[in-house]
Structure formats: structure tokens, C-alpha cells
Design brief:
The protein has 611 residues and is α+β, with helices and mostly antiparallel strands. The protein contains 19 helices and 25 strands.
């Protein structure tokens, strides 16, 4: 009696342990699901904040780039003296290239000469005090007509260069992304947006758009913040990031549903894991007694992680297909000739990096290597030439033009490398002609099939690429072709060869290789023929199809010799020799026959007449 009782006690203990394990499993599932959702919420908050930061960075980058340009222009003006007309032209050209709404040179009294030629009073600009103290910067300016961003750089005479950018135009070009983003002033007024109905929002306050003033304090204090707000029946994530311009902020708004959809796979994975663990707990409870006699089971789980990233983009001669260019090594400035626009359908770049962005990706590394050698102080090379493909049209274009660029390095008085001058020449037609000549060299002019050189190259490449995959090579020639030429003339002989070529082109498959060796000899490589029987069937079908082939009243008859690869040989020369022996046997047996070469006996098989 003791043994059964001991078995019952052990079963009860195991059952209790299993129940405890099941409870722990269910608790772990709930904890995992709740923890996963909290983690998803944290990821969504960080993601929304990152979107706003990215948008602000997208706006800051062009501002910083234009400020550097303005500082460089101010340094240039400080080094030289210009008349008022020259200064106006310089300001006008710079405003055009940088997309400024206006660009002005302001003297110490506040009088400003603008790029449009007008003279205005800028003495009331609040940013002039900072600029005259020697500080370049970016400032916000709110006017009744529009909201502007001012860029200012000091001049040596106590004046300043002041450039104005439209906040709306800047936001339109550089506020990117799928979420609705807004450029907001320090008092919460919207000045620009990338939303579909952006014009309707401009001039509104952020609080009126959101239906709440929860973000006003963060905007006023110029803080980086993320909040979840309710806008009527819709929940929103709202993130703001400082632009570092007059207390302005970039505000990104994303619906909670849209944000959740990006992380739905994680929540689904948590539910799936919950169901799996619950099923395991049920199985454990159902097979408690069986588990007494068996080994414990194990549960395994896997996790996947995803990663992703992103990346980012003149000179002389007319009436020719050549473009002269010059690259200043010290100023990192590129001047492209006027013909560049006509040649490539786009304006010439002013930086080497911009020019290289228009070079075909496969050619760009080679061109960079050549330029690196030419511009290296320790290099002895001063001349180089390289063929590259240049993009024709805008950044989205996929059309490229082959150009040959010849480059030469010019040294300054100290024998330092100062300039690289070059000439771009359109060589697309030369490339095309070379390709045509290469194709013509591999093609038989009379029949349009491959010639002997083309056949050797194509068959050799097939034999090398396919390894020992079986195939067959057939060599055939026209019976009594010399008599045809002697009796009917060479023009009829040419018609016979063309007719036979057309027949072979239509009879064999597109994967087979067909060509004319010369004279009246033709050769074909047939794919997939892996035995004597298949080769016999293929040759019989060919003979049957050729039985009605005629040129006028003249019937075309052919003899053929065939060999199997790799049994008869593993190179073009070996296969050609075997097929030539077999063809000789067919001719000797009475012509209008085919013979298959047999490697084992070293002799050809009995010739078979055409059916």
C-alpha cells in the first residue's frame, strides 16, 4: 500500500508545481505585454521627438550654409574695393544663387544698398548691434507683409551684410517628411508649414490649431518637448524642437493611430508570445501524469532587430562639343564653361562635390582617384585623362553621356598646386561607333550570323560557364556548293547561304548558338542535348525540316557531322575537329547525311541518309 500512496503524493506535488508554473507563466505574459506596451510608448515619444529634431536640422543646415556664404562674401568685400554699381551686381548675383529674398550692404549709419539697386534705411534693424560687435548670426524678423529670417555678417567699416529669407519659402523647400510640420514663432504663431493646406494654417496660432494651449509654455521657453494631446475625437503627438532663430520652433504633429501603426508589429509579437505561452501552460496541465514518465519540455523564443540609415549632392567655349573648366584648389571653387548647360542640360556646379554627384556611380571612384593624384602635393603627375559618364538633366534623370576629360595642373609662384584646368569632350558617338565595329567584327556580313571569331568566343564562353553540362555541336555544309557557284553564279550561291542561315535561325532555339565558320560551313551548339538518342532525334528533325528548302528551283541539301560535349572534347578546337571528321565521313558515305562522332571507338558512326 505504501507504493501507490507514494505515487499519488508525487503526482499531487508535480501537479501543484505545474499549477504554480502555469500561474507564473500567465503572470509573466501579462507583465511582458504591459512592459512591451510601455516600451512602445517610449519609442513612439522618442520617435516623434526625433522627427521634430530632424525637421529643425533640415532647416538649420541651409541657414548655416547660407550664413557661411555670407561670411565668405563679406570677407571678399573686406579685401577689395568696389564701386556702387559693382557692389550692386555682386549682391544681385549672390542673392540669385543663394535664393535670398533680398541682400543688402549696410554701412555704419544704417543706409543700405540692396541687390535690387534701391537704397533703404536699415538703421532700425535690431540685429545690427550684434553684427557691428563682430558677430555673424541668424535672426528672426516679423513684418506685416511676411515673416523673414535675417542672416547678417559684419563688414570691416562697421557695416554689415544683411540677407533676408522667406520663412515660408524655406519651410516649403526644407520641411520634409510624412508628418505635418510647422514653423512657429516664440509667441506661438504659425509662419510656415509643409501640410497640404499650409496656406490656411499660416497666421494661426498653434493653440487655435490644436484646440489647447498645452504647448504654449514649451514654445515660449524655447524647450524641446513632446506631449500627447486630444484634439476633438483625435489623439495627437505634438513635438517641438528649437530652431535657434529668434525663439522660433519646429513643431511636428502626428496622430496617435499613425504612430502606433509603425510599432504594431511589436504589439502583435507580444500577443503572439502570450498565446503561445498560454498554450504551453495548458499543455503542461493536461499532460501532468504523462510528464511523470517523460522528460521536461523546453520553450525557445527569438527576437528580431531592424536597422536603417540615409544619405545625401563652370567655364568657357562656345559652338563645340567641348566644355572647359577650372577648379581652384585653395577656394574649392569650380567654374564650368557655358557649353556645359548645352551638353548636359543643367547648370554647372560651383563645387567639386556637386560636380561629382552628377558622375555615374560606377565612374565616380575612378575620377576621384585621378583627381586625388593630381591634387596631391607629393604627386609628380600634372596631366591626366579619363572617360566618365555625366548625368544629363536633373538629379532624377537616368540618362548619361560619355565624356572624356583631359586635366592639367597649374602651379603658383611657389610651385604649389593652385589650379586644375580641364576640357570635357563628348565622346558618346565614338563609343557607339566602337561598339558597332566590335559587333561587326563578330558578325558575318552575308548571313548576319556569328562569324568564326564570334562562334569561337560564344561557344568557348558557353563551355567554360556551364562546366560539364551536356550539349552538342553540329557542323554542316552545303552539298555540291561549288557546282552551284560554277553553274548558277556566285549571286545564287549567296542566296543559298542566306536561305540556309534564315532556316537555321528559325529552326534552332533562342538559347542555341548559330554561326557561319566560312564558305558554306555552318556550326550550331544545341543546349540540353545530353545523349546519342536525343542528338539523333534533333538531327533527324533538322533534316526533315530542311527537306523542302529551296532557292528558286534549286534544292538545298546539306551534310552534317555532330559531336557530344564533353564526351567528344572539352574545348572548341577539340569539338570542331571531331565534327569535321564526322562531316567528312558523311560526305564520303554519299552526302545528304549526318554522322555522330563516337569518342570511345575513335571512329565515326555509320552515316545515315536523310529520311
Amino acid at each position: 500500500m505504501t507504493h501507490p500512496k507514494r505515487r499519488i503524493g508525487t503526482l499531487a506535488l508535480v501537479t501543484l508545481l505545474l499549477l504554480a508554473a502555469a500561474v507564473m507563466v500567465f503572470y509573466s505574459v501579462l507583465s511582458y505585454a504591459n512592459g512591451t506596451w510601455r516600451e512602445i510608448e517610449g519609442l513612439m515619444f522618442n520617435g516623434i521627438a526625433q522627427r521634430a529634431d530632424n525637421q529643425a536640422e533640415h532647416l538649420r543646415m541651409p541657414l548655416e550654409s547660407r550664413l557661411r556664404h555670407l561670411e565668405a562674401l563679406a570677407a571678399y568685400l573686406n579685401r577689395s574695393t568696389h564701386t556702387a554699381e559693382d557692389l550692386r551686381e555682386i549682391l544681385h548675383a549672390s542673392a540669385q544663387t543663394q535664393g535670398f529674398e533680398n541682400l543688402a550692404s549696410v554701412d555704419a549709419t544704417g543706409a543700405a544698398l540692396c541687390a535690387d539697386g534701391e537704397t533703404r534705411d536699415f538703421s532700425d534693424l535690431s540685429c545690427l548691434a550684434y553684427v557691428r560687435a563682430g558677430e555673424s548670426g541668424v535672426y528672426a524678423a516679423e513684418t506685416p507683409e511676411s515673416d523673414l529670417i535675417l542672416l547678417a555678417a559684419p563688414l570691416a567699416d562697421g557695416g554689415a551684410l544683411v540677407a533676408a529669407l522667406s520663412a515660408e519659402a524655406l519651410a516649403k523647400d526644407f520641411l520634409v517628411g510624412t508628418s505635418d510640420s510647422f514653423l512657429v514663432t516664440a509667441d506661438g504663431r504659425i509662419v510656415a508649414s509643409n501640410a497640404a493646406d499650409a496656406k490656411r494654417h499660416v497666421g494661426q496660432t498653434l493653440s487655435s490649431l490644436l484646440g489647447t494651449d498645452a504647448m504654449d509654455a514649451d514654445i515660449a521657453q524655447n524647450l524641446r518637448a513632446v506631449r500627447r494631446l486630444a484634439n476633438g475625437s483625435q489623439d495627437l503627438y505634438v513635438a517641438c524642437a528649437p530652431l535657434n532663430v529668434g525663439g522660433w520652433q519646429v513643431v511636428s504633429i502626428v496622430s496617435v493611430d499613425e504612430a502606433r501603426s509603425s510599432y504594431a508589429f511589436m504589439y502583435d509579437a507580444a500577443h503572439l508570445l502570450e498565446l503561445r505561452l498560454a498554450l504551453c501552460a495548458g499543455v503542461i496541465l493536461a499532460v501532468a501524469v504523462w510528464l511523470m514518465r517523460s522528460k521536461t519540455r523546453q520553450i525557445r523564443a527569438e527576437k528580431l532587430r531592424l536597422e536603417w540609415s540615409e544619405e545625401r549632392y563652370r567655364v568657357l567655349a562656345q559652338d563645340s562639343n567641348e566644355v572647359f573648366w577650372e577648379y581652384d584648389l585653395q577656394e574649392n571653387r569650380l567654374r564650368m564653361g557655358e557649353n556645359f548647360n548645352r551638353l548636359c542640360g543643367r547648370a554647372g556646379d560651383e563645387t567639386l562635390e556637386g560636380f561629382l554627384s552628377g558622375v555615374h556611380p560606377n565612374d565616380c571612384p575612378r575620377l576621384k582617384d585621378v583627381l586625388r593624384v593630381l591634387t596631391g602635393d607629393a604627386s609628380a603627375e600634372t596631366r591626366a585623362a579619363v572617360d566618365v559618364r555625366l548625368r544629363v538633366g536633373g538629379p532624377e534623370s537616368t540618362r548619361y553621356l560619355w565624356c572624356r576629360t583631359r586635366m592639367s595642373v597649374l602651379l603658383d609662384a611657389r610651385r604649389h598646386r593652385r589650379l586644375v584646368i580641364g576640357k570635357l569632350t563628348d565622346v558618346s558617338q565614338d563609343r557607339l561607333n566602337a561598339e558597332r565595329l566590335e559587333k561587326r567584327a563578330r558578325t558575318d556580313a552575308l548571313t548576319g550570323l556569328l562569324n568564326r571569331a564570334g562562334l569561337e568566343e560564344a561557344i568557348g564562353a558557353r563551355l567554360q560557364a556551364a562546366g560539364r553540362a551536356p550539349c552538342a555541336v553540329v557542323l554542316m555544309d552545303v552539298d555540291d556548293f561549288k557546282a552551284v557557284n560554277d553553274t548558277h553564279g556566285h549571286h545564287v550561291g549567296d542566296e543559298v547561304l542566306r536561305a540556309l542561315a534564315d532556316f537555321l535561325r528559325g529552326h534552332f532555339r533562342g538559347t542555341d548558338i548559330i554561326g557561319r565558320l566560312g564558305g558554306d560551313e555552318f556550326m550550331a551548339l544545341m543546349e540540353g542535348v545530353d545523349g546519342h538518342e536525343k542528338l539523333t532525334q534533333a538531327l533527324t528533325r533538322c533534316r526533315e525540316a530542311m527537306s523542302g528548302l529551296r532557292v528558286g528551283d534549286l534544292e538545298i541539301c546539306c551534310s552534317a557531322g555532330a559531336a557530344l560535349f564533353p564526351a567528344a572534347g572539352e574545348s572548341f578546337d577539340a569539338l570542331y575537329k571531331c565534327t569535321d571528321l564526322a562531316l567528312y565521313e558523311a560526305k564520303r558515305a554519299g552526302k545528304s547525311r549526318y554522322v555522330i562522332y563516337t569518342q570511345q571507338t575513335g571512329e565515326s558512326q555509320e552515316a545515315r541518309p536523310a529520311p
